[in-house]
Amino acid sequence: MLTETILETLPSGKPTSSPQNRADVVVIGAGPTGLACAIEAQKLGLNVFVLDKGCLVNSLFHYPANMTFFTTPELLEIGNIPFATPNMKPTRQEALEYYRKVTHHYRLKVFQYHWVKTVTGKDGEFRITATDRAGGIHDFEAKKVIVGTGYYDLANQLDVPGEDLHKVLHYYQEPHPYYDSDVLVIGGKNSAAIAALELWRHGARVTLVHRGPQMHHHVKYWIKPDIENRIKNSEITAYFNSFVREIGNDYVLVDAPDGVIRIDNDFVFALIGYHPDYDFLRSLGIELSPEQCRPVCDPGTLESNVPGIYVAGVIVAGAMTNEIFIENGRFHGQLIAADLREKLGS
Question: What is the mean pLDDT of residues 3-8?
Answer without folding.
Answer: 35
